[in-house]
Design a protein that fits this description.
CATH topology of the largest domain: OB fold (Dihydrolipoamide Acetyltransferase, E2P)
Number of strands: 6
Number of domains: 2
Number of helices: 2
CATH class of the largest domain: Mainly Beta
Structural class: alpha+beta
Length: 130
């Protein structure tokens, strides 16, 4: 069996170089993530999106702008970081959202808005009715 213990000084040098390179990259990545938190990203929403207040009561039942509504099968909810959220995780919470409806009228795509997105007006600031 061929082993490389003390006869491979280049391997030790490579490991040290990789560790050194990673240590110098950490402050830059930490700084970048801090800047992203200070200035939230503004996402682009479909032209068919509506603005409203969503409260999931018991999946798939929900309240949209205080009126009874339903989430469609296969609906998606995205948080302020654009990550998928399960409806059970936001049950009972009133959320300011942009959303779209499918052709049957049920709520299909939902984006929970951050503070900068709430300040923006949609091209047609309207509320849908089921």
């Amino acid at each position: 069996m061929n082993r490389c213990n003390t006869s491979c000084p280049w391997l030790a040098a490579l490991i040290i170089f990789a560790a050194y390179a990673n240590l110098h990259a950490l402050p830059a990545s930490a700084q970048a993530s801090f800047e992203e938190e200070a200035k939230p990203n503004i996402r682009h929403f479909p032209k068919t999106a509506f603005r409203g207040q969503l409260q999931v009561t018991a999946t798939p039942d929900a309240l949209m702008n205080g009126k009874a509504d339903r989430l469609s099968p296969g609906s998606t909810i995205r948080d302020i970081n654009n990550m998928l959220v399960l409806p059970g995780a936001v049950t009972g919470t009133k959320l300011v959202v942009n959303y779209t409806r499918e052709n049957t009228g049920m709520v299909h795509q939902v984006w929970i808005l951050n503070t900068e997105e709430i300040k923006q007006k949609l091209p047609s600031q309207r509320h849908s009715t089921p």
